[in-house]
Amino acid sequence: EFKGMSKERMLEIRQQNCFPMTMKVTFYKKPVFIHQGHMQWLWDVDGKRYLDLFAGVATVSVGHSHPKVTAAAERQLKRLWHTTNIYVYPTLHEYCEKLASNLPEPLKVVYLTNSGSEANDLAVMLARLHTGNFDIITFRGSYHGGSPQSTGLVSNHSYKYPVASSLGCTNTMCPDVFRGIWGGSHCRDSPVQTIRECSCAQGHCMAKDQYISQLRETFATSVPSRIAAFFGEPIQGVGGAVQYPKNYLKEAFELVRERGGLCIADEVQTGFGRTGSHMWGFQSHGVIPDIVTMAKGIANGFPMGAIVTTPEIAASFNKAVHFNTFGGNPVASAIASSVLDTVKEDGLQKNSLDVGTHLMTELAKLRDKYEIIGDVRGKGLMIGVEMVKDKASRDPLSPEVMSEIFEDVKDMGVLIGKGGIYGQTFRIKPPMCVTMDDADFFVAVFNKAVHNCMERRVR
Ligand code: PMP
Description:
The chain is an alpha/beta fold. 38% of the residues lie in helices and 15% in strands.
């Protein structure tokens, strides 16, 4: 039972003492006042239970207040909260070794940070130090963070400010096979076939070739032979679970490396088994990046981030001294270490694959039933449901109608996310402990919410 501050008072404080930009991301018209969590469940201050399918944006990886992770945190809190990494202490070293052992060769060297933005900032700096080049390429629609450096990488107007951000960042066309100008079903690296039409001929993916030719054009127009790094989320998160055609990343990485640049995978949302088939999103693209950045799920919601790279690239950091007060904090390291164990012990990667595939298969049936569900896509528990005005035009469903469905789903007890450059995609990225029953419950709720929406339109 919750005996704290009243809802009215919290809203008052939010108005008076919290930055206005934090109000904007209170997505709901009727806000949700969360008070407690356990595994895939959240409870509000009135005791109403929600199935959490957004996990604080793919952040709660193993489950809210997971007992094993909570115990690891408690043990460490009693022993040592903080010391700087100028001293040698066990939890950081245990964790760096454990994390590195979960990445393919030659990715063996870890630097711990406090957030994804900070990890991406460091990745940019490292790429520039290592290559001696300056230019960075990211995808349109991408999200890489909120710091001055990482907002330069971001390509989504909602997260950009009309002030100077970092120099040297160029966006290239996102090879989005649903909303982009080229595409088709089997271009997509997905466990379920989600759209019918396909521009591919005889197994050769024309869309991939077309998007690659666009990337070549970006090199020619914007970064002739001075590229430091190319950034990609293996599946775009904030962009709305956007997947790229098969072999696109492989060819893009080759082109970047031919030009002396490094390839960076931003695994902030896709890492730690969420995509089901692999521990890391990049693995299903058949590539090995030069630098991998991670955060969010790394510590199940405790503030932490990391970059992992090769010994050779890491050595370029010696050109400068870098100090980070909290990076690799003993409690954060103990939690992250326990998260990695828990992903394995609880079989969460396999669960992501099984539940995610089932969920997408069931959602694809709703897509076939309703004119306004344009696309269902993803991998494991990194899922997007793109909403359209109608299937023929594929115009994005309006923000107002998106909100109605979103609010209805919440009122029926399920929390999901919204994303995409027009806010047109529902995002489903739950704690990886969700069950088949949870998936079925959501499908029933979503079916009802979309049905209600269609009814309102007819009336
Ligand atoms: N990269 C990606 C792919 C993200 O989704 C985010 C956060 N939404 C970030 C980086 C930034 O992480 P943080 O908010 O921890 O700085």
